[in-house]
């Protein structure tokens, strides 16, 4: 099997310090790296006196999701995106929701998928996806692959989204701004001590880089994970609102995101929703104009209303959005006020749908019923046949007419992964149907921007409603 760390790709942003030592200038950590060693992130190494990227083109499976997955509510709501995640991180947060990929030592060669920039763009084009999202572990440490692929994608009219903890150097941000259209920055806390202790980074470069993006005029949204009893108090909301209102602008959409126990921080509970609601109210009272809750279903705090006439413009349920009162130009459909929602020109490409499965051949059907906090799955389908095939999926509802089947066309040999998330309160689950020659597998999604690595048992439901892989602390 191919070893993912074997080949290096020339890295950008490096200084030669002499005696074969190089300094990486990609993140504020500025690692000084001796020959044969690697940096803190474990994906940039010194090979024969030059810095190389070890994760260029190495990725988790490309996955179709929705833009809401990335805490982006004011850019083409409901858009389908192609999420690309990689290996490594310049931080090491105690609660990391993607620790199986962000911490490179846990990544097995068998977990890694290989893509070229052209292949990523080709997947998006063939599946009618207009946004590529650089996400999950953290795109900062994938700098060369992100910037090269994003530039290629733009030539095809594709928009690039960058979801990051943004512990990044000023020079690296300068290189991103020409190719990235949307920045979704996760500010872990407004407390310097918290940053040092919990994330192993420091706060000042994160805030400076966020301001740099704001000044550039690129689309920016910010979010904060409200960790139970650590950062879910009113002080976090106040400090965040002060930063956004004074150093960015009150129009910048701000998200307070619900936490789930994970990685080294499992001896706690999910953030109580009333604390999130209180945080939102504090930020609104301090003058922020668009404040949302994340990872909370059944809440009006994820909807958008016109700030002039009060009309309901967008409803959101989980990771899905419905546009009710928005013009194609992003204005209120009732009063015409600019909703500050950027739109992608032209009709949104939609998948074909059919009322019934084709009867010309049998289909294998597998399903998952939403339960507890698991209200989404990643579905992977693979066409092992030598000819193109079509697979189908649809939602199951508790009443009314059955939903239509959504068709996905696969090339011979193609593997495709996509998210299915609960989009209505009366939906009970999802089913996927594949013809002979194709296989499917389901992976339970626990909160957004989380790449699940544990496979659910296909065809059965809910054997495990806590699907997260367990972190076992090393004994030495
Ligand atoms: S990107 Fe990696 S190697 Fe470079 S400074 Fe940051 S942690 Fe160090």
TrEMBL record:
Keyword DNA repair: no
Family annotation (PANTHER family): PYRUVATE FORMATE-LYASE 1-ACTIVATING ENZYME, PYRUVATE FORMATE-LYASE-ACTIVATING ENZYME
InterPro entries named among the record's database cross-references: Aldolase_TIM, AmmeMemoSam_rS, Organic_radical-activating, rSAM, rSAM_sf
Residue ranges annotated for the Radical SAM core domain, each copy included: 74-289
Enzyme Commission numbers on file: 1.97.1.-
Record protein name field: Benzylsuccinate synthase activating enzyme
Required cofactor names: [4Fe-4S] cluster
Signal sequence interval, chain numbering: none
Record-level Gene Ontology MF annotations: 4 iron, 4 sulfur cluster binding; metal ion binding; oxidoreductase activity
Top-level taxonomy: Bacteria, Bacillati, Actinomycetota, Actinomycetes, Pseudonocardiales
Gene3D superfamilies: Aldolase class I
The organism of origin for this protein: Actinoalloteichus hoggarensis
Record-linked CDD domains: Radical_SAM
Keywords of this entry: 4Fe-4S, Iron, Iron-sulfur, Metal-binding, Oxidoreductase, S-adenosyl-L-methionine
Entry-linked SUPFAM superfamilies: Radical SAM enzymes
S-adenosyl-L-methionine keyword on record: yes
């Amino acid at each position: 099997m191919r070893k993912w760390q074997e080949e290096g790709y020339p890295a950008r942003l490096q200084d030669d310090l002499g005696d074969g030592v190089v300094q990486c200038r990609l993140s504020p950590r500025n690692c000084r790296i001796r020959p044969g060693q690697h940096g803190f992130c474990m994906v940039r190494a010194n090979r024969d006196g030059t810095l190389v990227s070890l994760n260029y083109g190495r990725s988790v499976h490309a996955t179709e999701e929705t833009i809401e997955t990335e805490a982006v509510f004011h850019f083409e709501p409901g858009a389908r995106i192609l999420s690309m995640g990689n290996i490594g991180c310049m931080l090491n947060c105690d609660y990391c929701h993607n620790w199986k990929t962000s911490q490179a030592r846990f990544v097995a060669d068998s977990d890694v998928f290989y893509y070229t920039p052209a292949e990523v763009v080709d997947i998006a084009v063939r599946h009618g996806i207009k946004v590529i999202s650089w996400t999950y572990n953290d795109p900062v440490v994938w700098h060369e692959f992100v910037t090269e692929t994003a530039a290629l994608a733009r030539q095809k009219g594709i928009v690039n989204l960058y979801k990051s903890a943004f512990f990044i150097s000023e020079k690296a941000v300068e290189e991103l701004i020409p190719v990235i259209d949307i920045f979704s920055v996760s500010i872990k806390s407004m407390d310097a001590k918290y940053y040092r202790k919990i994330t192993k980074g420091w706060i000042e470069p994160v805030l400076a880089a966020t301001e740099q993006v704001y000044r550039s005029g690129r689309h920016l949204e910010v979010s904060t994970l409200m960790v139970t009893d650590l950062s879910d108090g009113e002080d976090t909301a106040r400090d965040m609102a002060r930063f956004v209102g004074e150093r960015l602008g009150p129009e910048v959409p701000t998200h307070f995101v619900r936490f789930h126990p994970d990685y080294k921080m499992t001896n706690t509970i999910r953030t109580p929703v009333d604390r999130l609601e209180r945080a939102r109210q504090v930020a609104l009272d301090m003058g922020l104009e668009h404040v949302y809750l994340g990872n909370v279903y059944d809440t009006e705090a994820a909807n958008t209303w016109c700030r002039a006439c009060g009309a309901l413009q967008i409803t959101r349920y989980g990771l899905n959005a419905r546009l009710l009162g928005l013009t194609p130009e992003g204005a209120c459909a009732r009063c015409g006020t600019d909703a500050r929602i950027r739109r992608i020109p032209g009709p949104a490409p939609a998948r074909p749908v059919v009322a019934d499965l084709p009867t010309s051949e049998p289909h294998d059907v597998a399903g998952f019923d939403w339960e507890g906090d698991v209200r989404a799955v990643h579905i992977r389908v693979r066409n092992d046949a030598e000819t193109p095939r079509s697979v189908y999926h649809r939602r199951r509802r508790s009443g009314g007419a059955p939903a239509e089947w959504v068709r996905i066309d696969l090339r011979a040999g193609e593997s495709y992964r996509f998210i299915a998330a609960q989009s209505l309160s009366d939906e009970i689950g999802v089913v996927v149907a594949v013809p002979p020659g194709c296989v499917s597998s389901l992976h339970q999604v626990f909160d957004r921007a989380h790449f699940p690595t544990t496979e659910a048992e296909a065809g059965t439901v809910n054997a495990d409603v806590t699907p997260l892989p367990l972190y076992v602390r090393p004994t030495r």
